[in-house]
Predict the 3D structure of the following.
Amino acid sequence: MKKSNNYALANCQIFTGDLTNGIIKNGVILINNRDNKGINYGIFGNIGEIDKIKIPKDHEIIDLSGKYIIPGLINAHAHLTGDGKPRNITKKDDKSLKRLLWIARRWIGRKIIKRMMRKNVKNALNAGITTIRSLGDPYYYDIETRDAIGVGNFVGPRLLVAGRSLCITGGHGWMMSYVIDSPWDARKAVRKNVAAGVDVIKLIATGGVMDSKKIGEAGRPQMTIEEISAACDEAHRAGLKVAAHAESTQGVKEALKGGVDTIEHGAELDRESIKLFKNNPNSLKGYSVLIPTLSAPLAICAWGEQELQMTSVQRENAFLLKDEMISGFKQALNENIKIGVGTDATVTFVTHYDFWKELLYMSEHGKIDPKFVIYLATKCNSEILDIETQTGTIENGKSADFIVFEENPLKDLNVLAFPFMVGIRGNLIERPKIKKIKKIEKLKKIKQF
């Protein structure tokens, strides 16, 4: 990995992430690196056609003839605790799960989980994901991972973390959540997360697939509007946005009424919900956003129970939600609702290195061109996460986060699976190596995926 030098990426084709700008052909990008107490932080300098940009003498020229550059990708919905590998944890009873949580709090469990988190974020970075919003992990280990990157312990993507999510008694995701059963419980849990230093608050408003025990449980409204509203009010008072897991028409509408800022997963939308997305007086910015995460149900529905190591009930619930989520995504597109891109990485067969598949699914199901989908995963995602002044576009003064490809991803999104170079805050990862999960890759080969 190269770092602490100034670079000029030359003779490349550049998509800045901004739809109002054309593709810069035979372009150059200047990267100015600064050392701050041993931590490298590189920002973009001048960008443009090579015959119009003067390359300073202290910039090393990296010839990228025939290569294509886009901004670093942003995954707006992931979980750092898991890696997508099939495990039978989804079949365990609550007693066994509580035993696992007990281990997770001890030094050996803490060591295993933090090692997995570090591996996951490194893998994501090598796949071109330079920012991750992690929406719910146990015991604030996500904060520790974020801070380890921040102080330069290792080079990793920018992390925005939610700490512990909020759910009701017996609700979806209870293993990684504060359990709340009243508006004041909700406020207290938000206050704990704020005090711990989270970047976003995560609510689990409805049931979900991975721990469902009955058909129809996924998507069933769980948190009340009053509880959602209290959590949102408390988070907004601290200047934090609220993301809500919601997988039914009613669940989405109740979460929007409560004032959430982003709906995660989604479902078919009624007219009231469509209006609330566009004009939500209870949200932080006056509107709300949909993060569809099509990868999660599509991955589960592509495999059998034995391969997934999930129950028949959980798999059936994924089938019930899949068409609803796709329908809600299409409605959001048609209604000009703001849309972000996230994968729900950690769900079985949804890895941290396969983010590109989400863009492919969105393009196929939404009938939208690759350039627009890449915009959603870069500039648009940065706006949703309130980091647009830092990253999301290749622009003078912003963090030098980018990906280089040998072929043109604006013509074929499959190209995103093969980054030639990745830049994160000016650190260059040449020929990035993705450590793929052997079990998943073996199953894909057998099934010819």
Summary: The chain has two domains: 6-71+392-430, 73-384. The longest strand covers residues 24-36. DSSP finds 13 helices and 17 strands in the chain. Residues 312-334 form the longest helix (23 residues).
